[in-house]
Design brief:
alpha+beta; elongated; 66 residues
Amino acid sequence: MCEVKARRSADHGGAAAAVTPAKQAQVRRLAESWLRQAEHDGPGIEMRFDVIAIEGVRLTHYPEAF
């Protein structure tokens, strides 16, 4: 799963700072729900949570951010 945040500038911590602990928990809950409903929850299923931060024209990828 990937969370994408965009900001015009890096003010106030920038786009990556917008992925708060509450947002991380929400994304985890949604992923767990999707896995249960889609019956993808089986052996060997791996999931990671990446963040893409876009600030102006700069894109930064944070693999396995949380």
